[in-house]
Automatic annotation (TrEMBL):
UniProt gene name: mtg1
Cellular component aspect of the GO annotation: mitochondrial inner membrane
Protein name: Mitochondrial GTPase 1
Protein's organism: Merluccius polli
Its job: Plays a role in the regulation of the mitochondrial ribosome assembly and of translational activity. Displays mitochondrial GTPase activity.
G domain sequence ranges: 124-196
Subcellular location: Mitochondrion inner membrane
Length: 297
């Protein structure tokens, strides 16, 4: 695939994505509202900024680490000082080992919480859906207690539906974590922001539509001149036509479905490409980092 040929094709790609009349109001599942209510009750309606907190940026294996320093500086300018990058799916992640000491130091440096008689800690894990909160808890248990997972995990948002009971992750010091459902603001600022969240797996695919998410992914990859999908699926050339791309993916992966066709001599069953299955594979490949590092600015 010659660069000049690719760039010539890129000139005809879309410069904007048509979001149509879509709204994001229905992308806020009921369990999120329930989860927020439960969390507020648990912390007795206190705002989080009055308590020591640590920002954990998980799934660092999927991140573009060339922007790590810039990201940290931007967070520090916003007042966030305690930041930890982790990959909770690794059997051994050195950064996971830093979490308990960091938390202990944070608490001990806050006079309000530095009480000698209190030798155990209970912390709440809060974040948007599908960022690995439950995986983080399980990783801590594996690291400090040498025990298996205690919190259910999955590759889609909404696995954790409610604030669970306390889960011990360490015995020196004694530390428990509360797993919580992933939450988003009830009011997402724009449809495009919602689409980016959906593409990253923080909103259930079927609420948005796998075909729509796949089309937005294709638009984003082409706009950023990230054409690794061409070689991965054997397309030959980049394309801005999602139907063409999904058909080629379905054919390459053997993803078909049977449908009935009405003809003049009777009904017959034929095989056609399964576009939904192809869209799902395309999206999953992006989320697994198989299409390269992509910054959705």
């Amino acid at each position: 695939m010659k660069l000049c040929h690719v760039l010539r094709n890129a000139a005809a790609f879309r410069t904007a994505f048509d979001f149509g009349e879509r709204e994001v109001a229905h992308w806020f599942p009921g369990h999120m509202a329930k989860g927020i209510k439960q969390m507020r009750a648990t912390i007795k309606n206190e705002s989080l900024d009055v308590r020591p907190h640590l920002l954990v940026l998980n799934k660092m294996d999927l991140a573009d680490l060339s922007t790590k320093e810039r990201t940290v500086k931007e967070l520090e300018r916003s007042g966030m000082r305690n930041i930890l990058f982790t990959d909770s799916l690794k059997q051994r992640d050195d950064n996971i080992k830093k979490l308990v000491p960091m938390v202990t130091e944070l608490i001990n440096n806050k006079p309000r919480f530095n009480r000698d008689e209190n030798t155990s800690y209970c912390l709440m894990v809060i974040g948007v859906p599908n960022v690995g909160k439950s995986s983080l808890i399980n990783s801590l248990r594996r690291t400090y207690l040498k025990k298996g997972r205690a919190s259910r995990v999955g590759g889609e948002p909404g696995i954790t539906k409610a604030v669970l009971t306390r889960i011990q992750v360490c015995d020196r010091p004694i530390m428990h974590l509360l797993d919580t459902p992933g939450v988003l603001p009830p009011k997402i600022e724009s449809v495009e922001t919602g689409m980016k969240l959906a593409l990253c797996g923080t909103i259930l695919d079927h609420l948005v539509g796998e075909d729509v998410i796949a089309d937005y992914l294709l638009y984003s990859l082409n706009r950023l001149q990230k054409f690794s999908y061409v070689e991965k699926y054997g397309l030959g050339d980049p394309s801005d036509d999602i139907q063409h791309v999904l058909k080629r993916i379905a054919v390459k992966l053997g993803k078909t479905q049977r449908v009935k066709a009405i003809t003049g001599v009777g009904n017959i069953t034929i095989k056609i490409p399964n576009y939904t299955a192809a869209a799902y594979d395309f999206i999953r490949a992006f989320r697994r980092g198989e299409l390269g590092q992509v910054m959705l600015n």
